[in-house]
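WARN no homologs supplied; continuing
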Amino acid sequence: MKNFFISLIYIFVLPTMIVAKSDNENLLKELDEVISNKKYYHKLREDKISHLKDSLRKSGDVKEKYDLCGALFYEYLHYQADSSLYYINMKHSYLPQMNKPELEDEILINRAEVFGVMGMYNEAEIELDKVDLHNITNPGLIGYYYRTRRACYGWLADYTADIKASKYYKKITETYRDSISMMNLPDMDSQINNAEELIINGEFSRAINLLLSCMQSSKDMKRNVYANYTLSEAYEALGDTSNQIKYLAITAIMDIKMAEREYASLQKLAYLIYLQGDLDRAYRYLTCSMEDAVASNARLRFLEVTQIYPIIDKAYKKKETEKQKDIRRLLIGISILAFLLIIATFYLYYWMKKLSVMRRNLYHANKKLVEANRNLAQTGKIKEVYIAKYLDRCVIYLEKLEQYRRSLEKLAMASKIDQLFKAIKSEEFLRDERKMFYDEFDRSFLDLFPNFIEDFNNLLTEDAIIYPKKDEHLNTELRIFALIRLGVTDANRIAHFLGYSLATVYNYRSKIRNKAKGNKDNFEQDVMNL
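OK structure emitted
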């Protein structure tokens, strides 16, 4: 059975609340904005009160002072009940000077109304019992008396714990409501009273139409507040949560704009919003209600708030606790992620540094490999050129030896012994061959290294620059270092190649090295790098 009722709530009540929330969202946003500007509306009220007080201080007319005290009583009634009571007593102090004893009843009803707002129902009843209706001729004052009686007994009925006493006060409330109806007063208060009676009798549609009709014809904002609140009660009785919230929100907006502090709309709305699950908004509304109830010294409203506040406060604190737990979990998660990120960053930095070293090493290795390939290609080219030249030279030399042999053979066969010995002893053949050999070497070398002479001189000081003669390609010094450029660094091989003594080659090398611009110890290596 319990599960059945819970299911019914989910099927019928919950969708109604969701629709109500959706339909009234704009109205609730307006209420949120009005609440946020509450201090502004209070300042307007305070300015009005301040103006009335100034007028009271400056006035010298007793009747005017009496009326100003009445206005201050009215302004303070739902704003600060203690001050309202103060100005009623001040108002009463002017009666002896006015010589109008009939106004005594008005002051008694005023005082009872304030006591009712303050929750002092016994004191209110005592004041009302002092009123003699037979002496009152003003129908409006009689209606005011009945409404005050009805309000006080209505509050007693609502907030008396004893069920029997509550029923008793409800019965008296209905009696005074009937009395108001029987007067047939044309004012809006009477129409609102009639609408309340229709609601009690279950005639909700008639009550709603009556209230809507009287609001259309009225510009009295305070009366419209009562009408809207009564409309919310009609829709509550009908089970129409959407319209109940709508008219409670309208009532609350008007209450706060009028800078009222004693009201029932906002705390009632807060509870409905709480049931819809909008806990933050419900908590704000209830906090606002409590602040105003305390400031106005409205015990009844404070009691209403304290009945609802623990429920919403507990739920709100639970939500805040859950939120704090979620935040802690999130912070722990973020901390763990941050820690892992730091580790990952260091790990990545370590591998990036290692990769950087590997790339640098690879770059240098590639550079050396390129240099080695270049040197290898150059060495291969050198070998290719010099092998070709060597083979050509060998063939040419063999042909010349053959020609030389035949010339000697002819001299021998002709018995020209003297000429034969002269030819054998002559060094002209060897000298010419050596000269041709060096010329061929020089040309081949300069073909491979056309800028050698210029680059070589760039390694020397200006006073040590070497250039060959016009009929030479290379001179002896250049030829020695040309051999070094080709990789022939051994002094014995250089001396043998050039036909010089070892000392001569050594002297040439030392002389040129001492004229180097840079480091003399690295001079020959610099030559090899040309």
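Confidence is low (pLDDT under 50) at residues 1-20.
OK
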